[in-house]
């Protein structure tokens, strides 16, 4: 629909002989909106969206004026807007269930009297298959080939389904397996900074914006593309033309000055910023970088920062456009006309960084880049930064907590000499666990031992760092220098290299560094998100057995963005984020007890100690190799036919027409039950009476705790289901790969091995107590017993409920288990939205109240009345009947924040809302 254009902002921009129509912020300012030049750049992108989509209904003149008012109140006044992103990005773990839902909606649309073809993406959608490769094979020249073959074998049903989707739906493209991580493909190829569209004979130019079904969609913010992660259900609505309902956010400015010192990497910067952001508290806010220090960061450095926005807790982490943007677009082979348009458009709209006055922000954080030092983060949260030379001491403290206070030896490991990362030599070389004064355990059929703190996984993985040539080349140089001195990776370390794109292989090979990485066991294992999401593959059986029989706290070191407990490997309880070169260093050291900053990593051929400083490259060396090895031709070549795929992809047969023929025996893809019995009339949710408590959780329950991820245990409800359907444990694959089958996923909801339900004190894993029987059982089994008796369910939780990745199954599984409401101390943004999108009521305890303060044990019955008439953010009382019959009242706030969200909730979810509207339009 054409914009009403109340502020007469429609203008023409001429660039290189081409004419573009655009909606000018400057023109709007001159025509009554007022001066908006000091708005943060990210809000200027949103403001343009309002100007372009003003229709008097979903976007009104008041919505546009609210941006001018934002400058007066710095975002402290809530104002709801309807935002329409230019496109949608998916990865296959979250994308498969989204396409499953679209296919199911086509079936439901036919039953409601609409055409199946009405269910079709209305904006461009790109799905990148990057989350299915696992590190089954490693440290060998054919590891990549073998892993890809296994990937296709495991995922045959899923890939057949996605091939069908790529032919059945318009505006929908699939990037085949083995290409790269969706965020890096987005950064290197899909993202344009400024988008264009032919409309009524004109070429309209507007900001490139997107939402994605992966929380790290924010990585594209580094290219001045406003994007963030949403749940699969929100993404589906955006695909179907529905706006993203949101409040104009507060924006936290992050001012950077200075320059990174020698020896500090972009990863060290990222981990430093992550802690600062979490300490500040930026959940549900925009963050935006500014200041003179940005001139000293490459765009790849900026993208590395933007990637970690979910770890900050912020919605996005935006960078204005500048010379670095243009340099990157050129270096990755983008079209010259597009690059010229990016410069002209962003200058015209007032978010070219060098021309911008310092924006008005809600609040500001400052960092002098010269103060950044080498660091890691762990053992289970990205914000738990540890200065590198303090890592062993911190591990000794953390292992006590991990083991519940039982640690075998309280002595700090002895450090001999005065060796520092920067400095002088030492005489003592530690080579074995006994040097640290801690118990060691022999690994069967080997000549080595492992211990608490042994590094058993060292993985260069994930989009966070593999978008950045500087740290990949640094890792290669550390490997080269270590190899030259005769150092070897410890034999108990599982090593892997999973680049974000094929271009990484090109420049590592051109520089001759891949040979050095291969020599240390960092062979290519796949192009995708592996260890960071739990696709680390199994440890060698002897190592796994030794860890579990002796209750060892084994460690992983990875260059990813997530290290939540239970995520990386079920055998590994302490996980550390680090730069790629430090991943190599820890693989050489083999232990968190080894102080890699101050102690030798090993000895050279002559028996002399080798320190990290001896093999660490200078920034000048790194820059020199980058200039020679990374070329625009590599990007042009790799992305010239990116949707074609290899022979295995091309050989997948496609069957089915506009609706999918659901294979009844498939254990990967099943028609979900969300739309069963649905009618055109709204059956609004009613009061919740005498509900039972399914679980009582503490603080920081992540979507990894809630949503099934990683491997499937044979003894779990999901494992039993698969075996009943003739799937052997060897062929279980991962939960992520089976997200298209609701029967598997609902059985795995709340089944994380590290989740702690306070209804069963001292027990880890997805168990609960069923009432009134008092029987302890898996959460899924209890939910089915409650369903059989017609008993509704609620969950109590602490603060930051649902933080982490944008896992739509954390909400889908919740509703399928019969949970009607979640009552928590606070919610992370995406999960709260997803709960509403599936028809689950999110309630937030009033200040001063919590499940703990109220003395709740899970034995209570819960009633919530007045649901039919609730309003956004209203106060609502929850009646709680205790086991002895006494009653108390919990005071809560309805965390349905907008009228749009209320519409979704009353319809039973966002997909039901869209379906009803489409069916009515068809009628």
UniProtKB/TrEMBL annotation:
It comes from the Bacteria. PROSITE patterns: ACONITASE_1, ACONITASE_2. Its EC number is 4.2.1.3. Pathway: Carbohydrate metabolism; tricarboxylic acid cycle; isocitrate from oxaloacetate: step 2/2; Organic acid metabolism; propanoate degradation. CDD domains: AcnA_IRP (cd01586), AcnA_IRP_Swivel (cd01580). It catalyses: citrate = D-threo-isocitrate; (2S,3R)-3-hydroxybutane-1,2,3-tricarboxylate = 2-methyl-cis-aconitate + H2O. The keyword Iron-sulfur applies. InterPro entries: AcnA_IRP_Swivel (IPR044137), Acnase/IPM_dHydase_lsu_aba_1/3 (IPR015931), Acoase/IPM_deHydtase_lsu_aba (IPR001030), Aconitase/3IPM_dehydase_swvl (IPR015928), Aconitase/IRP2 (IPR006249), Aconitase_4Fe-4S_BS (IPR018136), Aconitase_4Fe-4S_dom (IPR036008), AconitaseA/IPMdHydase_ssu_swvl (IPR000573). It is an enzyme of class 4 (lyase). Its cofactor is [4Fe-4S] cluster. The keyword Iron-sulfur applies. Keywords: 4Fe-4S, Iron, Iron-sulfur, Lyase, Metal-binding. Residues 76-590 form the Aconitase/3-isopropylmalate dehydratase large subunit alpha/beta/alpha domain. Residues 720-847 form the Aconitase A/isopropylmalate dehydratase small subunit swivel domain. Belongs to the aconitase/IPM isomerase family. PANTHER family: ACONITASE/IRON-RESPONSIVE ELEMENT FAMILY MEMBER (PTHR11670). Catalyzes the isomerization of citrate to isocitrate via cis-aconitate. This is Aconitate hydratase. It comes from Henriciella pelagia. The lineage of its organism: Bacteria, Pseudomonadati, Pseudomonadota, Alphaproteobacteria, Hyphomonadales.
